[in-house]
Design a protein that fits this description.
By secondary structure, the protein is mostly beta strands. It has one domain. About 5% of the residues lie in helices and about 25% in strands. It has 1 helix and 5 strands. Strands 1-5-4 form a 3-stranded antiparallel beta sheet, with no helix packed on it.
Length: about 90
């Protein structure tokens, strides 16, 4: 966990495989759509602002593993943070 360093601000994302995937999966592509209408994503944008390279996605547990991720879209609206949008793609496996 040394790679986490002082990254104290974390948000838990759950993938409910029972609502359409049908089974537990590994190395499954996941798209994360951050916007205010999908829950309070404003805290993500307030912390990261325009630097979309300032986040990490990791597995849960006592020994989290960083997952590879690609940013497709990162639009930070400093005037109205609730209007910010981010689309990130990652895999459920390392």
């Amino acid at each position: 966990m040394a790679w986490l360093g002082t990254w104290a601000k974390r948000i838990k994302l759950d993938i409910d495989y029972t609502s359409g995937i049908g089974a537990s999966v590994t190395h499954f592509p996941v798209s994360i759509h951050l916007k205010n209408a999908n829950g309070d994503s404003t805290k993500v944008f307030e912390e990261i602002t325009t630097n979309s390279r300032k986040f990490a996605i990791a597995t849960s547990g006592s020994s989290p593993t960083e997952l590879k991720a690609e940013v497709e879209q990162w639009e930070y609206d400093s005037g109205t943070v609730a209007n910010s949008v981010g689309i990130i793609h990652c895999s459920t496996g390392s």
